[in-house]
Design goal:
The chain has 287 residues and is α+β, with helices and mostly antiparallel strands. It folds into 2 domains: 132 residues, Urate Oxidase, CATH 3.10.270; 150 residues, Roll (Urate Oxidase), CATH 3.10.270.10. It has 5 helices and 12 strands. The strands form 3 sheets. The protein has an 8-stranded antiparallel β-sheet with strand order 1-2-3-6-7-8-9-12. Helix 4 packs antiparallel against helix 5. The mean pLDDT is 98. The protein binds uric acid. The site of uric acid has 7 residues, from helix 5. InterPro entries: Uricase. It comes from Planotetraspora phitsanulokensis. It holds the Pfam family Uricase.
């Protein structure tokens, strides 16, 4: 027998730039919103009866209309507002997932209306709502960091394929992808929480004397949990951006940790979760 399995549908990547004007001082929020709904959707799959379907085009229009009516504050608040709206307004929709990415802009000069896309990381969030409970995961991607010392790597397995030399001093560099789960998102001050978590990640990366990127990962995750009581779990994905010392001896030059080749691939990929042992059940938060 063939049956319909889990399914969801929505509009991916609705790009919205919301401008707020206070006289000559303009502000912009640049976001990418993906909505995804599930509920009584058996018939649309099995017989093509669309009567339970809130069209993905309507979902996109709702994102635009809400940006006008409510503005776009913390992306988590906007995601929750949309998720609640879809479930609470449509009897056939039982679950909403709203994911948002935010691209950051800085002021270009002091005109109040000119901006330059900043090199900052992308802020992210995913909110779920099922009609009674909400789950929120916040995060960031592409937070690029590098330490020029205080990183060693030695003592690992040596088998017949091992060639990596042990090192007591290397460059440690990564582009942090991090996501953190709010224990009880209702009432969280998401902008403040974001800045605290980001600062904790940076402080732990810069301040940890590292014997491996795995050890640094754990230090970063636990620092977020120590500094942010509202967060109960952190997931990190850390590509090891290898920097290899270049052999300059063919040119009669020594290379005392000065000239590196920044390899782009392959790269080590170190991933892990750090959580409180009494963290509430994750439910659909990570989906
Ligand atoms: O921090 C590291 N962890 C590893 O597991 C590993 N493996 C490797 O080749 N280099 C590194 N560095």
């Amino acid at each position: 027998m063939i049956i319909l399995g889990p399914n969801r549908y929505g509009k991916a990547e609705t790009r919205v730039v919301r401008v707020t004007r206070h006289g000559d001082a303009h502000h912009i929020k640049d976001v990418n919103v993906s909505t995804s709904l599930s509920g009584d959707m058996a018939e649309v799959h099995l017989s093509g009866d669309n009567s339970a379907v809130l069209a993905t085009d309507t979902q996109k229009n709702t994102v635009h209309a809400f940006a006008k009516k409510h503005g776009v504050g913390a992306i988590e608040d906007f995601a929750l507002l949309l998720a609640r709206h879809f479930v609470d307004s449509q009897p056939t929709v039982h679950h909403a997932r709203v994911a948002i990415e935010e691209y950051s802009w800085e002021r270009n000069g002091d005109s109040g209306h000119s901006f330059v896309r900043s090199g900052r990381e992308t802020r992210t969030c995913v909110a779920h709502y099922d009609g009674s409970q909400a789950w929120v995961v916040s995060g960031l991607t592409g937070l690029v960091v590098l330490n020029t010392t205080n990183s060693e790597f030695w003592g690992y397995i040596k088998d017949e394929y091992t060639t990596l030399p042990e090192t007591r001093d290397r460059i440690l560099a990564t582009a942090v992808d991090a996501a953190w789960r709010h224990a009880a998102p209702d009432g969280d001050a998401f902008d403040k929480s974001y800045e605290n978590a980001r600062q904790a990640l940076l402080a732990a990366f810069g301040g940890t004397y590292s014997l491996s990127l795995q050890q640094t990962l754990y230090a970063m995750g636990s620092r977020v949990l120590n500094d942010c009581p509202e967060i109960c779990e952190v997931r990190l994905s850390l590509p090891n951006r290898h920097h290899f010392l270049v052999d300059l001896s063919p040119f009669g030059l020594d290379n005392e940790d000065e000239v590196y080749f920044a390899a782009d691939r392959p790269y080590g990929l170190i991933e892990g979760a750090v959580l409180r042992d009494d963290a509430p059940a994750a439910g659909p938060a990570w989906e």
